[in-house]
Structures are given as structure tokens and as C-alpha cells.
Design a protein that fits this description.
Layout: H1 2-31, H2 36-49, E1 85-95, E2 106-107, E3 112-113, H3 123-127, E4 131-136, E5 139-141, E6 153-155, H4 157-165, E7 169-171, H5 181-194, E8 198-200, H6 206-210, E9 213-217, E10 220-228, H7 249-261, E11 266-272, H8 283-294, E12 299-303, E13 311-317, E14 323-329, E15 334-336, E16 346-357, E17 360-378, E18 381-388, H9 389-395, H10 403-420
Parallel strand pairs: 1-4, 1-15, 4-7, 5-6, 7-8, 10-11, 11-12, 12-14
Antiparallel strand pairs: 1-16, 2-3, 9-10, 13-14, 16-17, 17-18
């Protein structure tokens, strides 16, 4: 009996031990710390359950990076660009308006003038220019307040005709600038401004006179200055010394320097000087023009003599001793006027090609195109056309020209070509 009880107790103890072992195994399996991905997932689940917005601490996040800005392209012609910038500059001489030039171009119905026929034949030579400039040797007015020599006042529509022809720059410093006094200066500039034309040479205020005129095209900055020897004895008001830019050598040198400082790549000076009807420049013209080239000007565009004078290519040295080159056109003659005889009805339209490379701008070609003002009668009135002489002679198909006209053009073309080349400047062969 005791033995049976002992056996039963042993079996019970064994069974209890077995149960205890199983319980421990189960308990240890449930409470063992998870490892690997399971741990990460459990942590993430716990965070979400607790409302945490943070992700797992061992997961790094890289914010997207902005691409670096593209470098600004270097403009053609600038240092380091590897590219050249090019442009075409056109310059013509005196735009004059004598009274016989007006009647044929008046429309009685609109009571307006239309002077665009003047320029129709030379328009293709002007409108393809990047800069096209002319010297306006008259004041502008309206409502019939017109006059010719000696005190010019012309219809305001002339400004529109210049714009239509392709001009974008008009210089106003000449001996007729004050023909209608201070009001005439202001009216003229206002009418030119209405057409979007850039001006230099006269001003409506001290501030306007002190400003710099730089016209940029094709990444080339052309600076403009204009001066006249005088105003036909008409005094500039003492309280308006800035009204007309007069030739003042020291001031001109300073103005050139100021234009360079303002960023001009190429400087043009419209210079109204010399002696009327003289076919050769005076010693004073040569001296002044050459000094301005040495001071930093690149091109002198001369007017006033009313006839073509030679042009020359000048080698000079600036104040630092550096070599530089410029072109002096002593007189471009008359582009449009009623003057006749002794080649006063001829002018030279200059086409000048510019090239800017590594920050330096040079002239690569200077081409004078000889023009003639053809005056003819129709319906009892004078009509005027500016003709490119060489082209007209080559084509010989103009119905308005006579055999005598062609003969005269041939003779004068030969004379003028020789005159242009008299100071050694190149002139294209016929």
C-alpha cells in the first residue's frame, strides 16, 4: 500500500515537473525580445499606436537637393565667349530743306506732307543697318510755319520720313540749330522723339545735355557725341549753356572719357566743322579730328561743307601710349537739299562694319556709297530722289533719267572717287 502511494506520488511529481517545464518554455517564448526586421516592424507599430509622427530612429532620410543654377551665358564679343559680335553702322551727311522741296509733297486733302519718296531708292542701304544716323540741318515745325535759307524751319513730317527710311539716330548740332530760337530746339527734339529717334547735339534741359547716349545692338554699345562750330551768330542764352553742344576741345576729350566709362564699345562723333564748299579739309579740321581719335573716338562723321571731302584711316596713340586706329570722314556732303552744281548735289553714304571680339571693337570695312540728288519737274513742281550712283549706272534702266543725266553721273563719280581717296583711304574699285 505504501509502495503504491509512493509510486503515485512519484508520477504526480513527474507530471507536475513536466507541466512546469512546459509552462516555462511557453512563457519564455512569448516574452523573448524580438530581433531583426520583426523588431523594427514592432517598434513602428508601437509608435503608430501611440500616435507618434516619427519614423524609426535607425532609418535616415535624405532631403531632395536643388540643382545648382545654370551659369549666365557670356555674350558674344565679350572676353571668354569665344564668339564675335558684328554690326553695321550707316552714316549720311546733311538733311536740308529748302522751300522748293516742299510743294510736291503736300497733300491738300490731309493737309500733311509726305517726304518718304526722297529716300525710297536708298532705303535698302539704310534699313538693314543696326545703327543709321543723319545730320538734320533744319528745325522742325508745323501749321505752315516754314522757311528756307537763311533760317530753316521744315514740316514735322520730315521726322516720320527719316524713321520710315530706316534712320534711328539724328544729330542736331549744326549752325542752323537755333534758327527758330529756344522754342525751335524744343519742338524739333519733341517731333524726333515722337518717332522714336535717338538724338544728340541739342538739349531741352541741363539734365538731358549731361546724359550719355549709348545705343546697343548685337551686344555692341555705340556711344554718340555731336558738336558744331557755331550757330550762325545767334547767341546761346546765357542761362542755357547746355542748349547746343559747341566745339570745345577740352570738354570733348572729357566727354569721350565719360562715354568709355559708361561702357561704350565704339564712339562716334558727329562734327559740324570745316569751310563750306571746300573739297579738301583744312589744317584745323585735320588737327582737331586727329586729336579726338587719339583721345578715344573711333569715328568722326563730318558735315557742313555741303560737298564730299576725303576720308582717312588714322593710327594714333592714346594717353597711355597704346596704339589705336580710327576713321575720319571730313565731310559726307549733302544727302538731300536743293543745292546744285559743283558736286553740291552729291553725298557719300558710309556703310561701316563693326566686329567685337574679346571685348575689343574694331572696324572691319568702311564703304562710301556715292549718292546723287536727282531733281526733276513733274506737274510744274520740283521732285527729288536720292539715287545710289553706282547701282543706277550699272542698271541703266531708270525711266526718269536722261542720257545727259547718266553722262553727268559718270563724270562726277570718277571725280568723287578720286577725291575720297585723296588722303590714302581705300575706295572700292569700280
Amino acid at each position: 500500500m505504501k509502495r503504491r502511494v509512493a509510486v503515485v506520488l512519484m508520477l504526480a511529481a513527474s507530471l507536475a515537473g513536466l507541466v512546469l517545464i512546459i509552462a516555462l518554455i511557453v512563457w519564455n517564448g512569448e516574452s523573448a525580445p524580438p530581433d531583426g526586421d520583426a523588431a523594427n516592424r514592432e517598434q513602428a507599430d508601437n509608435h503608430r499606436a501611440e500616435g507618434s509622427s516619427e519614423g524609426p530612429s535607425d532609418i535616415s532620410r535624405e532631403e531632395p537637393r536643388e540643382a545648382p543654377p545654370e551659369p549666365e551665358p557670356v555674350p558674344p564679343g565679350s572676353p571668354g565667349s569665344g564668339l564675335a559680335a558684328e554690326g553695321l553702322l550707316v552714316a549720311v551727311g546733311d538733311i536740308m530743306m529748302h522751300m522748293p522741296q516742299l510743294p510736291a509733297y503736300f497733300d491738300p486733302e490731309s493737309k500733311r506732307y509726305d517726304f518718304t519718296p526722297y529716300f525710297a531708292e536708298v532705303k535698302p542701304l539704310i534699313e538693314d543697318a543696326d545703327w543709321a544716323m543723319a545730320n538734320l540741318e533744319t528745325t522742325l515745325s508745323e501749321n505752315g510755319d516754314y522757311s528756307g535759307y537763311p533760317r530753316f524751319s521744315s514740316p514735322r513730317e520730315l521726322a516720320a520720313a527719316l524713321k520710315e527710311a530706316g534712320f534711328d539716330i539724328v544729330t542736331t548740332a549744326n549752325n542752323h540749330a537755333l534758327d527758330r530760337g529756344v522754342p525751335g530746339v524744343k519742338r524739333t527734339l519733341g517731333f524726333l522723339e515722337e518717332q522714336g529717334l535717338v538724338t544728340r547735339g541739342t538739349a531741352r534741359s541741363a539734365e538731358e545735355a549731361a546724359g550719355t547716349v549709348i545705343v546697343e545692338q548685337n551686344h555692341i554699345r555705340v556711344g554718340l557725341l555731336a558738336y558744331t562750330y557755331g550757330t550762325n551768330g545767334i547767341p546761346i542764352p546765357a542761362d542755357m549753356p547746355w542748349l547746343v553742344d559747341l566745339i570745345d576741345e577740352e570738354r570733348m576729350v572729357q566727354d569721350i572719357a565719360a562715354l568709355r566709362e559708361a561702357g561704350a564699345d565704339f564712339i562716334v562723333i558727329a562734327l559740324h566743322f570745316g569751310t563750306e564748299y571746300q573739297t579738301e579739309p583744312s589744317d584745323e579740321q585735320k588737327r582737331l579730328a586727329r586729336r579726338l581719335i587719339a583721345a578715344g573716338a573711333d569715328l568722326i562723321a563730318g558735315s557742313h561743307p555741303h560737298v564730299i571731302q576725303p576720308y582717312e584711316v588714322v593710327d594714333a596713340q592714346d594717353e597711355s601710349g597704346a596704339a589705336r586706329q580710327g576713321v575720319i570722314i571730313y565731310s559726307m556732303g549733302n544727302f538731300i537739299s536743293n543745292q546744285r552744281g559743283d558736286t553740291k548735289d552729291y553725298g557719300a553714304l558710309y556703310r561701316i562694319r563693326l566686329r567685337k571680339e574679346e571685348g575689343i571693337t574694331r572696324m572691319t570695312e568702311v564703304e562710301p556709297v556715292i549718292t546723287w540728288v536727282h531733281r526733276y519737274k513733274a506737274e510744274g513742281r520740283n521732285h527729288y530722289r536720292i539715287l545710289p550712283v553706282e547701282r543706277v549706272l550699272e542698271e541703266r534702266n531708270d525711266p526718269l533719267l536722261t542720257a545727259a543725266d547718266y553722262a553727268q553721273m559718270e563724270k562726277n563719280l570718277d571725280t568723287l572717287r578720286k577725291r575720297l581717296a585723296a588722303m590714302g583711304a581705300p575706295v572700292p574699285a569700280p
